[in-house]
Amino acid sequence: MRYYFAPMEGVTGAVYRRTHHAFFPGINKYYMPFITPTTTERFTPRQKRDIAPEVNAGVPAVPQLLTKSAADCIWAADALADMGYAEVNLNLGCPSGTVTAKGKGAGFLADPDALDRFLDAVFSATHARISIKTRLGMHNPAEFDRLLAIYNRYPVAELTIHPRVRQDFYKGKVREADFAAALPNCRMPVCYNGDVVTEADAQAVEARYPDLPALMIGRGLIGDPSLVTRLRGGPRADRDTLRAFHDALYAGYCEAFGDARIAMLRMKEIWFYHLNLFQNSEKHGKQLKKATSPRAYEDAAAAIFRDLAVRDDVVPGWFRPA
Ligand SMILES: Cc1cc2nc3c(=O)[nH]c(=O)nc-3n(C[C@H](O)[C@H](O)[C@H](O)COP(=O)(O)O)c2cc1C
Fold first, then answer.
1. Does residue 171 or residue 110 have the better pLDDT?
2. pLDDT digit string (tens) for 97-111?
3. What value does the mean pLDDT take over residues 160-188?
4. What atom in ligand 1 is closest to the CA of residue 195?
5. By C-alpha distance, which of 80, 107, 79, 73 is closest to 93?
6. How far is the CA of 198 from the centre of ligand 1 (A)?
7. CA 298 to each of CA 154, 244, 253, 287: distance values in angstroms, whole numbers, following the listed order
8. For ligand 1, atom 8, which residue shows the shortest CA distance?
9. H-type helices in the chain, by residue range?
10. Is residue 92 within 8 Å of residue 137, measured between CB atoms?
11. Cα–Cα distance between 128 and 86 in angstroms, integer?
12. Which of 2, 44, 111, 147 is deepest in the core (most CB within 10 A)?
């Protein structure tokens, strides 16, 4: 099985990817959070800070584009291929209202004819290897038949399916039956993505789909960064390793942002998923959330590593809102 780290905007930037890769081996690809190319045909300085090959040195990173403009997609995909990226991913899954209102991300799925024209233009012009990350549809999983018929017409390098529709956002159960029905009809290699949080979750997906080549994990890996290391037979990260990872990440953010306060805010995003890995973390978690200065944050984080034991019984689905 190949394991991929899901892209998470605001979470899995270059510093996170590098640090995770250094501490927890076993991830085949780290998908980068989306960037939106513009008509200027140049990446912005902010985008460059994440996609520059030197910030991803040694990390198997895959850039992701979010656009509905074939022209913008083509120049950006070609530029990324010329930087040395072996694959460029298209985001057809982002459910955010500001994105879908513009017909991008999952919003593009609502207009299959336009999507078909877009893919036709992109695949006939780019020299990049293009993969796609998609949902089952905008409103209804029945939309996927049509969407898959379109994807199947192009040389899509890999299709990652998050089996929800846009209206689901990240809530409720994944639409497992719809994924199972679609899988045999996919002409390209498929990657499953959604709600894998424990080793048992991953093993269940692998047992259900024995021919599935790849599994992408997002929130589960932020919460439990040694999850894939263990799936590959490695050890569960102990408190010292988690602390060393935390400290390296925080130091990396402080350096990258040149501002400990911004680094603290980044770390708090991660703790939202990660805190559950520690037993009886409620009180310590409150202290951490309350911290308004880097000093208070550092004290609160140190107290977690000092006082709390690491769980080995991560609760399935703990982060899923009902
Ligand atoms: C905070 C956040 C940011 C995300 N950013 C992106 C993104 O930039 N590109 C993308 O394709 N998916 C993005 N996703 C979706 C994840 O890649 C993934 O599909 C989703 O979290 C479901 O997988 P999981 O259950 O393993 O977390 C994001 C999800 C979250 C929660």
1. 110
2. 999 999 999 999 999
3. 97
4. 25
5. 107
6. 17
7. 50, 13, 13, 11
8. 33
9. 14-23, 45-51, 70-82, 97-100, 112-125, 144-151, 176-182, 199-208, 219-223, 227-231, 239-257, 260-274, 282-290, 294-307
10. no
11. 7
12. 147
Best residue for ligand 1 mutational test, from 62, 219, 224, 231 (most atoms within 8 Å of Cβ): 219
Per the DSSP assignment, residues forming a β-bridge with 162 are 135
Nearest to 271, CA basis, from 257, 256, 287: 287
Which residues sit with their C-beta closer than 6 Å to ligand 1?
A: 6-11, 33-34, 64, 91, 93-94, 133, 162, 170, 193-196, 217-220
If phi > 0 it is left, if psi is from -120 to 50 it is alpha, else beta; for residue 94 that is beta
> What's the mean per-residue pLDDT of the chain?
96
Question: Would you state the structure tokens that stand for residue 220, as one six-digit string?
Answer: 């589960």
Report pLDDT digits (tens) over 275-317. Answer: 999 999 999 999 999 999 999 999 999 999 999 999 987 766 5
Cβ neighbour number for residue 257 with a 10 Å cutoff: 15
Instruction: Give the Cα separation of 277 and 313 in Å (integer).
Output: 9
Q: What is the mean pLDDT of residues 163-173?
A: 95
Distance CA 147, CA 109 (A): 7
Candidates 131, 122, 136, 137; CA nearest to 7 is 131
Residues 45 and 53 sit within 8 Å (Cβ to Cβ): no
What are 217's strand-pairing partners? Answer: 5
- DSSP-derived letter for residue 109 is G
- Give the separation between CA 88 and CA 7, rounded to whole angstroms: 13
Residues contacting 146, CB < 8 A, separation 6+: 112
CA dihedral of residues 256, 226, 219, 66 (deg, nearest 10): 50
